[in-house]
Structure formats: C-alpha cells, structure tokens
Design a protein that fits this description.
By secondary structure, this protein is mainly α. The protein folds into two domains: 34 residues; 110 residues. It is 72% helix and 0% strand. It is built from nine helices and no strands. Helix 3 packs parallel to helix 7 and helix 7 runs parallel beside helix 9.
C-alpha cells in the first residue's frame, strides 16, 4: 500500500468520524429542541381526565387543582391542548352539580391558563359553551372566571 493510499484512508476515516459526530449532535438537538412537538396518545390523556373526574366526585379541591395542572400541554411535552381534553372538560362542566360547585372555577381556569395553547376551534367551542351555559354557574368565583373568559381576550 502506498503513502497516498494510507493518507487517503486516514482522510476518509476522519471524515466518517466527523459525520458520525454530526449525526449524534443532530439527534441530541432534535430530542432536546423538539421534545414538546408531539401529540399525546389517548392512553396518556385518559388517566389524567379520569383522575380529574375522581377528584371532582370526592370534592377534593386540591386534587382537582392538581389534576387540572396535570393537563398542561407544556408540562406534558404536548404540541398543543388535545381536542379530547377540551371536549371532556366542557362535558364535565355541563352538569347540574358543577354549576353550583366551587370546583368548576378550577376547571374553568384551565381555559384561561391554557388559552395560548388552544386552537381556534377549541376556543370557539369554549366560547359557545360559555354563551349557552355560563349564566348557570352560581359559585361566585366560577361566575368571575366565566366573565373573564367571555370579556377578555382568552378565547379570541
């Protein structure tokens, strides 16, 4: 093997090493920078909603607050709020017991806190729900949140 062949082989091995290094950096960047760009599976969302329902039935205010927080898309690494979450929260709220419960305010607060992560369709669903049912909430704090959602820029 000549000197040129040895130098050529070393150059090739060096280039291949650099290429491997770049691939590792790219994968690391993708994992780090784009981790929040995924949509959750139903298996991931269902237990969180079940925990919220359970805490509502138990009238556990702290549990409801935590369950609502557990649906945060940023904390979960979700790209956006899943439609299923919005639809289920509105279903939970459309209940005679919830209309008079202070727990409704915590669920309603979700729409304020997560408004930047709601799609136009989801905001429209919330707005429609509040226009149709917002006056049924009798708890003072729930009424206040309904007013803020209807009058503020959260659902626009």
């Amino acid at each position: 093997m000549g000197k040129e062949d040895i130098n050529g082989r070393r150059a090739l091995e060096h280039a291949q090493g650099k290429l491997r290094e770049c691939r590792v950096k790219e994968v690391h960047h993708r994992d780090e920078a784009h981790a929040g760009n995924r949509l959750p599976s139903e298996e991931e969302v269902a237990p969180k909603l079940a925990r919220l329902r359970e805490n509502i039935e138990l009238r556990d205010e702290d549990g409801v607050r935590q369950a609502v927080f557990d649906l945060n898309p940023v904390v979960n690494g979700w790209k956006r709020v899943p439609d299923e979450v919005v639809e289920q929260l509105l279903t939970l709220l459309r209940n005679e017991k919830m209309y008079s419960s202070q727990l409704a305010s915590h669920v309603l607060n979700y729409f304020e806190f997560e408004s930047p992560h709601l799609s136009s369709r989801q905001k429209s669903l919330c707005l429609g729900f509040l226009k149709a049912h917002g006056d049924k909430f009798t708890d003072f704090y729930s009424q206040q949140v309904v007013g803020e959602l209807l009058e503020g820029n959260y659902l626009k």
